[in-house]
Amino acid sequence: MTSAPDQASLNTLSVGTAGPRVAFLHGLFGQGRNWTQIAKAVSGPDGADARCLLVDLPDHGRSPWSQQFSLDAYADAVAATLRDAAPGESWTVVGHSLGGKVSMVLALRHPELVGRLVVVDIAPKGYGSLERFEGYIREMQELPIAELASRGDAEARFNEPDPGVKAFLLQNLRRDGHSWRWQVNLDLIAADAALGVDSRIADWPREVDDLPAYDGPVLWIAGGDSRYVKREDGERMRRHFPRTRQFTIKGAGHWVHTDAPEIIVTALRRFLHGAT
């Protein structure tokens, strides 16, 4: 295990065969394939409308683990992956939550790679701590994976009342032969959450505040029922991304693409084809 993930080895899934290149970056505890249905819809019925790349961020999915969390290292790993996938080309990068932070840092650190940026329900700021996720972390740690007989057994034992959240978190459970393991780097996330207000995952890297603003078009999507994007975040967002257009989806929560997939697809398709 190294202190930073191998920048060229993030796991990816491709959807579509022609058209503009689009990279999707998931949130904490997610993985690239969470965006599969959106990517299929964006790429069109014959796959010719967009070439989508669903990326597993470091410490998630089938990508390598790191010893310490760093948004800069995550962004650099994504940059290396995109360069390897399409040398010399630029991308529309879509990032949700943690992936939205990574996408913003990517655009600021590697602007030549990002032709357009879509940030979903997150702002370029520190959120204080991972308090919102502490219950999920505890539930995952308390699952006796050494005793599990089947995935059904895991579902029965997992102490999460919301079936959608349960399915989302248990997608990280993988079987190796007769044993089970967490595919996500749960120890790293739990250690970061234990830092409280010093959490790196919840924070925003101060060093990027000194970088030039990103001058490409930005679509900033927020869930109307989410608490992650506030009115006062607009000034900070536009300082880094002056060509930002905000779009709030009424009735959607933090997982906007799950709550309102049709609206997200329509917005992405319009944005890809020049709407700003």
Walkthrough of the structure:
With 276 residues, the chain is of the alpha/beta class. It folds into two domains: 12-125 and 204-272, 3-Layer(aba) Sandwich (Rossmann fold), CATH 3.40.50; 131-193, no CATH class. Helices cover 34% and strands 17% of the residues. The protein contains ten helices and nine strands. It has helices at residues 36-43, 71-85, 98-109, 131-142, 151-157, 163-170, 186-193, 233-240, 256-259, 261-272, and strands at 12-15, 21-25, 51-55, 91-96, 114-120, 173-176, 179-182, 218-223, 244-249. The strands form two sheets. It has a seven-stranded mixed sheet, with helices on both faces. The chain has a two-stranded antiparallel ribbon with strand order 6-7. A hairpin with a 2-residue loop joins strand 6 (173-176) and strand 7 (179-182). The longest helix has 15 residues, at 71-85. 41% of the residues are buried. Residues 1-8 have low confidence and may be disordered. Residues 20-122 form the AB hydrolase-1 domain. InterPro entries: AB_hydrolase_1 (IPR000073), AB_hydrolase_fold (IPR029058). This is Alpha/beta fold hydrolase.
Q: Could you write a compact summary of the structure shown?
A:
With 276 residues, the protein is an alpha/beta fold.
